[in-house]
Amino acid sequence: MGFSLIPELPQYIEFGFAGLVLLFVGIPHGAIDHLTSQPTIDFKGLVVFLVRYLSLIGAYLVVWYFLPQVALMIFLAFSAYHFGQTHFLKIENSDVRSKMLFITRGSFFLSVILFGDFQMTTFILNPIVDVSFLETYSFGIIGVSLILTLGIEYWTFRKIKLESMIDLVILAPLLYMAPLFISFVVYFGFWHALPSMRLEYEFLNRFPQYNSLLKFAKQLIPFTLLSLVGISGLLLFGMRFLDQSELLLLFFILISLISFPHVFYMDHFIKKFKTARY
Q1: From residue 10, how far is each of 1, 15, 162, 179 by CA, in Å?
Q2: What is this structure's pTM?
Q3: Domain span holding position 180
């Protein structure tokens, strides 16, 4: 997180770094949802999976088109839960307390990221909603979310885990000081996507057709490339008609669209994996 120490970073470096993280861990960790859902999936099963997956994306796209502010709130809510869940992959139960813990931990880190570079946050969100008034309450929101997540963690485990203290004391300030894109991509890539991918590999390694790193990597390629081609094509098309803030917003919308069904499938996978129901 050396980026945190550089006050002004050229945007091409930010975008280049973000692109590399998304290419190698960010998008690939969601490219095998069909296998974590059904490891022995056949062609018919894959077609059914794709229809359901694309239907969820389509439904969410409709919400983005007609109710963008609602879609934004949905994005923040499921991102908070999804990111927070990755901090506690070893939790075996899925009761109300654990869900509250996931949401508050993810909300804390999202608030750190969004308020850390609030000028860029408002610049991106301006086409949808004016959030500039929140700057006055930024430290209050971060502080309340921190107290909530620590309180719920103590309520759940009767202690604050060492990993949590490291994340909250070291990671959070670095994310806060970094540019928005770097902060988001580092957290998304290395504190969410990479741990998720490790869990996916641990699971698929049980099956002969995926039981090596090379076999596993091959499974990541098809839908990773498909997602990259789609996102890149839409962004290149958008460059002709959109200004910079609209283009950046389009990027986050595209990420939210491919993330929406992934959240449901990943949550289902984690619950089944922990309870050994596969």
Answers
A1: 16, 9, 35, 10
A2: 0.90
A3: 2-274
